[in-house]
Amino acid sequence: RKEVEQDPGPFNVPEGATVAFNCTYSNSASQSFFWYRQDCRKEPKLLMSVYSSGNEDGRFTAQLNRASQYISLLIRDSKLSDSATYLCAARNNAGNMLTFGGGTRLMVKP
Amino acid sequence: DVKVTQSSRYLVKRTGEKVFLECVQDMDHENMFWYRQDPGLGLRLIYFSYDVKMKEKGDIPEGYSVSREKKERFSLILESASTNQTSMYLCASRLAGGTFQPQHFGDGTRLSIL
Q1: Chain B contacts of A55, Cβ < 8 Å?
Q2: Cβ(A36)–Cβ(A87) under 8 Å?
């Protein structure tokens, strides 16, 4: 079993839709979590950190469920420009290494 | 803004060559990382470095070595390149300390071994 798992998708949604991705992690000692966005043939870019209490940044909301060991990303009012691959990452309690999921591909259609 | 610069966007080398991939960051970050990314396999950690002259193996270190002589520079070396090392290579850096310090990535080097 992979340490961090994501549904690879693709998720095909119309513009304006709300879409949610989950990411499960197997290491219960994982301390912190992140969502990255990666465009085709580009590097991953930090989208947001995921805090225990949940956090929101504009149309994006990230949540952490420690009991069930998953994090989620909710995108409201999807834009064409949101089309990308979304990677989740978990940091272990040693603090320095991130383990990445395989990514979920989102395609927003007009 | 954090700037992580990789020396080449595209590189073509031949089997058996010694290949150097360079990464420089300008934010005085202690931690630096080298990953490769392949379709269906995601991002896999090759090596990382906590600080100058320190290095640790990641998940797939075989066939690679690294050098961290200066804080801002982390080099990945393919000792004798093979075709299965054709991949996208990504360097990242991070400020040490603080649970929520993220990693910042360079643009990536798309390496082809012929």
Answers
A1: none
A2: yes
User: B101: distance to nearest CA of chain A, Å?
Assistant: 9
What burial class does residue A41 get, using C-beta atoms within 10 Å of its C-beta: 0-12 exposed, 13-18 middle, 19+ buried? exposed
SS3 B85: helix
Cross-chain Cβ contact B100/A49 below 8 Å: yes
Burial of B104 (0-12, 13-18, 19+ CB in 10 A): buried
Tens digits of per-residue pLDDT, B82-96?
Answer: 999 999 999 999 988
| Residue B100 pLDDT class (50, 70, 90 cuts) | confident
Q: Any chain B CB within 8 A of the CB of A46? A: yes
Flag whether residue B39 sits within 8 Å of chain A, measured between CB atoms. no
Q: Do A44 and B50 touch (CB under 8 A)?
A: no
Region A30-44: what's the mean pLDDT?
93
* Sequence-ordered strand ranges (E) for chain A: 4-6, 11-14, 19-25, 32-38, 44-50, 55-57, 60-65, 70-75, 84-91, 98-100, 104-109
| Mean pLDDT computed over B14-24 | 97
Query: How many A/B residue pairs have CB atoms within 8 Å?
Result: 45
Contacts (Cβ under 8 Å, ≥6 apart) of A82: A75, A106, A108
Query: How many other CB atoms are found less than 10 A from the CB of residue A56?
Result: 12
Q: What pLDDT, in 10s, does the model give residues A5-15?
A: 999 999 999 99
CB–CB contact A96 B31 (8 Å): yes
